[in-house]
Amino acid sequence: MNTFFVDTNYFLRLLIKDNKNQYNAAYELFNSAIDGKIHLDTTVIVFFEIYWVLASFYKKNKQVVTKFLEKILKMDFVEIENREILVEAIDVFRKYSLDLEDCYNIVFYKKNNLEKFASFDKKVRKILFKK
Asked: What sequence ranges are listed for the domain PIN (predicted)?
């Protein structure tokens, strides 16, 4: 069985539907994975690119971005690097006024039981060290 790496634009075309030909290609690829004909893999980097493109290029608000990202995380037919950390990072992102990458780093730090968190970011430190 073939394994495909799925890049940012395939997810975006499927979610945004702003290019019919690319949407159709993405739809076909994802359906092949749903049907068990192929495997799909992607990375944390792609996930953050999706976040960045939705927020900066498409000017989507936090609520819409979060909804799109949760849809991707629910795609159990796509292997997503560090999915568990991303799921928790989305919860932190929804709750606090932080960038998603900061939320990811907070969850990564906690999940890996690291001893110290070196950051000058006051918002991050406030959340990490609140009583």
From this structure: 5-127
Q: Is 3 helix (H, G, I), strand (E, B) or coil?
A: strand
pTM greater than the 0.85 cutoff = yes
Closest CA to 101 of 45, 58, 63, 54: 45
β-sheet bridge partners, residue 41: 5, 79
Q: How far apart are CA 10 and CA 29, in angstroms?
A: 9
Go through 9-48 and write b for each residue having 16 or more CB atoms within 10 A of its CB, e for each that does not.
bbbbbbbbeeeeebbeebeebbebbeeeebebebbbebbb
Which residues are paired to 78 by β-bridges? 40
Cβ pair 106, 88 in contact under 8 A: no
Q: Are 94 and 51 in contact (CB under 8 A)?
A: no
Distance, first Cα to last Cα, the chain: 50
Series of mean pLDDT values for 10-residue runs along the chain (131 residues): 96 95 98 97 98 96 95 96 97 94 96 93 86 47
